Write the structure tokens for this entry.
Amino acid sequence: MACNQSFVGFEEGRSITCPPIFKGDSYFQWCHQMDFFIKAIDFDLWEIIEDGYVEVPKKKKRSSKDMGKAKLNAKAMHTLLCGLNDDVSKNVSSCKSSKEM
């Protein structure tokens, strides 16, 4: 079932598969909800958002640890983007890390 659908006769609730959407207001409430949403997906995602991610230069050989962090950062950025409406996502489209977003 898509995230915006609900059953007839039932009020739509929060989804464990779709993040809360930030529309430009009530940032602190959205942030608190995203905190739990992201930690529920993968606690390491929240840590990469808090700690930040610095991309390894392309000239340097990337270790498996570096690749793991790069994948976590990409997953965290994608999760955050899924929680933003189109107007808000334009403001973070040039960010290079989930922490920067």
Q: What stands out?
A: The chain has a mean pLDDT of 85.
